[in-house]
Amino acid sequence: MVTNNAINLNASGIAGYDGAGTFNASSMTQHSLLLGGVNSHTINNLGVATNGQLPIGSTGLDPVLSTLTAGTGVSITNAAGSITINATGTALSWTDVTGTTQAMLVDHGYTANNAGVVTLTLPAAAAYGTVMAVIGKGAGGWKIAQNSGQTIHFGITDTSSGVGGSLASTARYDAVFILCTVANTDFTVYSSIGNLTVV
Question: How far apart are alpha carbons 135 and 174 in whole angstroms?
């Protein structure tokens, strides 16, 4: 005798017993995921998942089959039985500057390689989140110059706004990595080596 809810396999699918003398048949869809229905004695089919689909919870409702959504800097590749997640951000491209002037590009790094000071000028247009870097190589060191309205934030110290402001090395191998924190105008040092000069 069955005294509690039971699930029984039969030739046509699954039967649920409600404990009160009633059996309810639930058909099975091939390759489908099963889930409990609204009533404790019913079983539903979630559906057949396609490549990369997962059951995603929905409070108080049946889960839904859905794929993951890639955010910024992420790619998702769905295949049969697998999901591959990769970072899509790229490393900085680097240029060895052997002259004494250089217009900087976003997401680019530079080695300052001259016997004299290498002056590198921030790009006039830079999107939020873009990165630039300068590493000393030659004996002359380097200076980062600014365009109108631009400022570099270095800890609690800011450069003078505009073309008169700058950030410079004091020793040959000083280095700096800066992030654009306000499009076109504000740049913040997030890593540095050396006792940099702020003007």
Answer: 6
